[in-house]
Amino acid sequence: MTSTPADVHPAWLPSAAWRAVGVRRVHVRGDGPLVATARDEVRAATAAHGGTVVDDPAAADLLLTVDPAVEGDEAFVVGRRDRVTSVRAAGGAALLHGLHHVVRQGDDALGSDRADERHAPVQPVRMLDHWDNMTVHPVMGQVERGYAGGSIFYADGRVRDDLTRVEQYARLLGSVGINAVGLNNVNVHVTEARLLTDHLDGVVRLAGAFRPHGIRVYLSVSFAAPMTVGGLPASDPLDPDVQAWWADAVARVYAAVPDFGGFVVKADSEGQPGPFAYGRDHADGANLLARALKPFGGTVFWRAFVYDHHQDWRDRSTDRARAAHDHFAPLDGRFDDNVVLQVKYGPMDFQTREPVSPVIAAMARTRLAVELQVTQEYTGQQRHAVWLGPQWSEILRFRLWGDTGPTVADVAAGSADAPAGGVVAVSNVGDDEFWTGHPLAQANLYTFARLAWDPSADPVALLDEWIGLTFPDAPPSVGDTVHGILDGSWRTYEDYTAPLGVGFMVRPGHHYGPDVDGYEYTPWGTYHFADRDGIGVDRTRATGTGFTGQYPAPWRDVYEDVTTCPDDLLLFFHHVPWSHELHSGVSVAQHVYDTHWAGAARTEVNAAAWERLAGQVPADLHARVTERLAEQVRGAHEWRDQLCTYVYRHSGIPDARGRRIY
Ligand code: GCV
To answer: pLDDT tens across 5-61, in order?
Structure first.
């Protein structure tokens, strides 16, 4: 329980969350840096709460022991007998996981007897990618799609001298089992390309801040680095000079950071360089880097987010949703075993509602990681309280081949033909005093990490776990109110924004706030095709882009047929008349009116409920959340009025309840 700088919010590790452990007599046995971290935590907790660290295990009522007999790298066994709680852990990382498990359980783990329970992560890789830049972009700021201030890693074009915040962040992440962090934006600019070389000393220091919490660091690299950093004439993956350059660069990184994780790569995507320039494919590109990393045990996370961002909006034959499958499915079986294909959960781009990407079902012989977005790019940008636990849970539990087959999480956790890839998300943290801009967005970071550990966990239980840790001494009204605001907030946000899976309708560029036709005639491939008769994208095999054919059965047929397609995804898969009747029994037009009024109204209820907590939570936190909820109320009403007016003007169908249209 090391201390948090006074001006930074302790998130889910305030001193009071350690009370149950801190009052005990605790014995820690084992060696190594991670055991030392656990011991330091226990020392600080007992110092704060009156317990003691004891040398004699017989005198302890909490025993934390490394026991090589426990199988599974990160596994631990916890139980309580004869008034002693014991955690037996496979190694140092597992011991730290076990300690934090006991902290989360509090008096439950330290009260009455409990049978032994074994805990081990389902996903071996639980990773957060940072889209942090070393310098500040005039429009985007320092963190691409960052809504919590600047980077905690970098300032003035270099790694920060003072890494106190990074150490605190590493501790927070380690406490919930994150074990990998990508240190820089996947859009790799000139300065960041040199993290591999000129700024390697900074990477060494960052790795040093994460290491005590069991977290390995990764770098995003530019496919053109052999040219831009190395001065070679090309970066063709089949060119021996290019291969030698990467081998050399990687060897230098490992000499400096022996436990370096590997690379994250965005290639041939949104302007980033890639193998297509040389007539090579993405297996050639990924394997180039994989072979350089292989001798050191490193991995390349190669992103599948590849599509044409110069599309002609008049061209109805191109469908952005198809792109990742079209590019990658034919390459299944061609990737080296230390390549992980990192696939965004949906075929478009982190929308509030999308079907699961069919690529996840198409790569049986490829290691695959699922990529989620904790930073709320399209989900309210940490100005709106939107807790995404239920979205991620639904995605991870989605059964790709129907009722009895494997889930998305099963695929990420690996099979006989393809070892695990893991679960990855884009972080929502910056140098903001509350870490995440909106203090309640901390719940997203927490829930992501806990679902990555166990994708079958009930997200609502995780929300309550986060509330209990974050507000340990608050009256019950605080927990009830925070629960009330966050549980259901994904649906509320969906209700007042783009309807029925159609996506986007946001202001181009910054992606905040409504602009129904904002993307309609752009090159980005994100269209809704609304006119006076109807709305939606025909992605059927029968009459549309054929995207439904990328799914295995039963989904290829469920989505193809307008009568079986779920309402939530109707406009993703079908173009229908405004008067089309949903399974819910109302027309598309009436659905927009009803959901938008209901969603906007709920934001008012939430703001009023929070107002009543004045004096029950710290004043600065209360003020920050108040300001954000007010903006959410304003934004939700703007969305409501634009959407309802748009639908009325296009369809001519009046709202059956006669509410105001502009
Ligand atoms: C890092 C979306 C975002 C981009 C992001 C990209 C990606 O398009 O708007 O900012 O770039 O996804 O995931 O690579």
So the answer is: 668 999 999 999 999 999 999 999 999 999 999 999 999 999 999 999 999 999 999
Whether residue 570 lies inside any domain: the answer is no
In a shared domain, residues 435 and 582 = no
What average pLDDT does range 451-458 have in this prediction? 98
| Burial bucket for residue 95 (CB in 10 Å: 0-12, 13-18, 19+) | buried
Closest residue to atom 14 of ligand 1, CA basis: 186
Cα distances (Å, whole numbers) of residue 108 to 78, 80, 283: 12, 10, 50
Q: Which atom of ligand 1 is nearest to the CA of 511?
A: 9
Where does residue 212 fall: left (phi above 0), alpha (psi -120 to 50 degrees), or beta otherwise?
alpha
Residue 145 alpha carbon, nearest atom of ligand 1: 10
Q: Considering the domain boundaries, does residue 109 fall inside one?
A: yes
Q: Which of 132, 143, 145 to mutate to test ligand 1, by most ligand atoms within 8 A of the CB atom?
A: 145
Q: Is there an atom of ligand 1 within 6 Å of 648 CB?
A: no
Share of the chain above pLDDT 70, in %: 99
| Confidence at residue 3, expressed as pLDDT on a 0 to 100 scale | 53
CATH code at 55? Answer: 3.30.379.10
Expressed in angstroms and rounded, the spacing between residue 584 Cα and the centre of ligand 1 is: 34
Residue 612: domain span: 493-537+575-651
In a domain, 41, yes or no: yes
Q: List, by residue number, the catalytic residues.
A: 270, 349, 377
pLDDT for 140 equals: 87
Task: Please give the C-alpha separations between residue 484 and each of 386, 463, 468, 480, in angstroms, as whole numbers.
Answer: 12, 11, 14, 6
The alpha carbon of 608 and the centre of ligand 1 are apart by a number of angstroms equal to: 35
Ligand 1: does its nearest atom lie under 6 Å from the Cβ of 305? yes
Same domain, 359 and 503: no
Q: Are residues 75 and 130 located together in one domain of the fold?
A: no
Distance CA 423, CA 421 (A): 7
Per-residue model confidence as pLDDT tens digits over 311-351: 999 999 999 999 999 999 999 999 999 999 999 999 999 99
Compute, in angstroms, the gap from residue 490 CA to the centroid of ligand 1. Answer: 21
pLDDT band at residue 172 using 50, 70 and 90 as cut-offs: very high
Relative orientation angle of helices 489-496 and 389-397, to the nearest 10 degrees: 100
For the chain, what is the domain count?
3
**What is the structure's pLDDT at 1?**
61
Residue 113 shares a structural domain with residue 130 = no
Average pLDDT over residues 608-612: 98
How many C-beta atoms surround the C-beta of residue 633 within 10 A? 20
Q: Are residues 235 and 263 in the same domain?
A: yes
Distance CA 623, CA 627 (A): 6
Q: Is residue 145 lining ligand 1, measured as CB closer than 6 Å? A: yes
Q: Quick one: which atom of ligand 1 is closest to the CA of 187?
A: 1
Residue 518 forms part of a structural domain = yes
Ligand 1 in reach of 131 Cβ (< 6 A): yes
* Closest atom of ligand 1 relative to the 344 alpha carbon: 13
Q: Which of 188, 349, 428, 512 to mutate to test the pocket of ligand 1 (most atoms within 8 A of CB)?
A: 349
